[in-house]
Design a protein that fits this description.
The protein is mainly beta. Helices cover 0% and strands 48% of the residues. It has no helices and 14 strands.
Length: 153
């Protein structure tokens, strides 16, 4: 902002204000408006499926753990009777822009069921969070689909 002070013929002081703006959310060279935006967070959910061959799958029969890249447990959940494995949504705000890595794996019980082959697969998940203007975006890359077999003799 520039203020120019002049004096007219009668000795009266007059001012002229010239605005200039740069950076931020500037919409024009003489912008006088400050623009703030609330950037809403985004959520992502990890939903998987458990399959069992040889006998019916039971509700809450198997446990699955979600861990962060450092191996810290975020959440452990159990399957439903239809084999759905659903974790609570994770939220990302503007401070979480970047790449986040997770793993999901089945928890092998200390006391194993006789004749059961347990799936030891580890699903690797990558969540990429980006910010574009006043929006946060995310993309997920993950896969988990294996079978657990029940062996009869």
């Amino acid at each position: 902002m520039t203020v120019e002070v002049t004096q007219d013929a009668a000795g009266v002081l007059k001012t002229k204000v010239t605005y200039s703006a740069a950076g931020g959310e500037t919409s024009k060279a003489d912008d006088q408006e400050f623009n703030n935006y609330v950037v809403p967070p985004v959520s992502t959910k990890f939903d998987f499926t458990k399959k069992l061959e040889g006998r019916p799958l039971k509700d809450k029969e198997f446990s699955f753990v979600l861990k962060d890249a450092e191996g810290n447990e975020i959440e452990t959940v159990k399957n439903d009777k239809d084999g759905n494995v659903t974790f609570t949504a994770l939220n990302y705000d503007k401070t979480k822009v970047g790449t986040h890595k997770y793993t999901v794996e089945e928890v092998i019980p200390a006391t194993k069921e006789d004749r059961m082959d347990y799936d030891t697969m580890k699903a690797n998940i990558t969540v990429t969070v980006s910010k574009s203007g006043t929006r946060i975006n995310n993309s997920n890359n993950f896969c988990f689909r294996r079978r657990k077999r029940y062996w009869r003799r």
